[in-house]
Amino acid sequence: MDIAKLAGVDAVKLVVMIVQAAQAVRHNKKTCQQLVHHVKIIGDLLKKLQNSEMMQQPEIRNGLNELEEILRQAYMLVTSCQNNSYIYHLVMSKRQAEQFRVLQNRIASCLQVFPLISHIDTSDRLDQILEIIYPTRSQTVKEVPGLITGCLNPSTTICSHRDASLKDLSHLITESFKFNLFQLIDATNNFSHENQIGQGTFGCVYKGRLHNGLEVAVKRCFESPSSPNQIDVQDLEFQNEIHFLTKLQHTNIIKLVGYCIHGKERILVYEYMSNGSFDTFISGMFKDNKTASGLACTVPDN
Ligand SMILES: Nc1ncnc2c1ncn2[C@@H]1O[C@H](COP(=O)(O)OP(=O)(O)OP(=O)(O)O)[C@@H](O)[C@H]1O
């Protein structure tokens, strides 16, 4: 097939075509399977992002166009491996090997960009949620507890995302909630076993008391895995949680009091909930017929 004939085919369709084509290859079977493995990952990620409004943004579209171009080449390469001719294989094998190498590199670079795209997408969605919760153009952060030295001045006004860039906003907020590690060591009796009140997927939770007397639940995240990419993803998830909870201050949302980043340590500090466990609290919220979403929050009915 001529590559020009693939011009209108979108990325998801190209992924399907590549997977099918790989089933009929005669040469380079193993290399084709490796390529298909990565192409399938891309396909799954694309399906997840498909309905996101962000996919229509010009900079994302440009990236997608490039991705489609890579996938078209991948399809052509895989179909060329279906050729049965021994002579063809002999003549082309060196060239194909080089093409596979180049494509694998380009695909690997694409895969590195996905966590970033997904991070931007999550931030966009959070902004949309905020818009529902706080429809006013701006709001004063009066409810943010003034617990830490250098905490936000209560009169500080946070503009809505229409007025300030998300980057500036999240920087402004997250900087104001920072704890240092020693404050948390002090609060939790050096993360002692006696202070441990639970454990979740991401880390152990300790009961603690801050200098000002406030009881807190301190979630000390498990150490990041050693692969550099995985650390990036885990850090993005950590930042997302800070970003999300610091922006959402509502009576039915567990308040994030602060966070700490120190070397490999990633720690989140929440208000302590004395009225039973986290699960009890969540099921209680459901009994109230309120909507709950991902991070155990409820959204006002109005
Ligand atoms: N703010 C809090 N106040 C009191 N106890 C808490 C608080 N947050 C967590 N806990 C306790 O720590 C346990 C673990 O909580 P964590 O949020 O880490 O995980 P989870 O939500 O239970 O599970 P997962 O992380 O898998 O979603 C909870 O079951 C609860 O007993």
* Ligand roster: adenosine-5'-triphosphate
Helical run tally: 8
Lateral strand order in the biggest sheet: 3-4-5-7-6
The share of residues in extended strands comes to 5-15%
What is the total tally of β strands? 9
Q: Could you spell the SSE succession in H and E letters?
A: HHHHEEHHEEEHEEHEE
Terminal CA distance = 57 Å
Helix content: 40-55%
Q: What value does the average pLDDT take?
A: 71
Unreliable parts: 137-170, 276-302
Class computed from helices, strands and strand pairing: alpha+beta
Gross geometry: elongated
Give a short account of the largest sheet.
Answer: 5 strands, antiparallel
Taking all Cα atoms into account, the compactness measure Rg is: 25 Å
In terms of topology, how is this protein built?
Blueprint: H1 11-22, H2 29-49, H3 58-80, H4 86-133, E1 138-140, E2 157-159, H5 166-175, H6 181-187, E3 196-199, E4 203-209, E5 215-221, H7 228-247, E6 256-262, E7 265-271, H8 278-287, E8 292-293, E9 297-298
Antiparallel strand pairs: 1-2, 3-4, 4-5, 5-7, 6-7, 8-9
The structure holds adenosine-5'-triphosphate.
Organism: Eleusine coracana subsp. coracana
Keywords: ATP-binding, Nucleotide-binding
Protein name: Protein kinase domain-containing protein
Main traits of this protein?
302 residues, alpha+beta, 5-stranded antiparallel sheet, two-stranded antiparallel sheet, 8 helices, elongated, binds adenosine-5'-triphosphate, MLKL-like_MCAfunc, Protein kinase domain-containing protein, Ser-Thr/Tyr_kinase_cat_dom, nucleotide-binding, Prot_kinase_dom
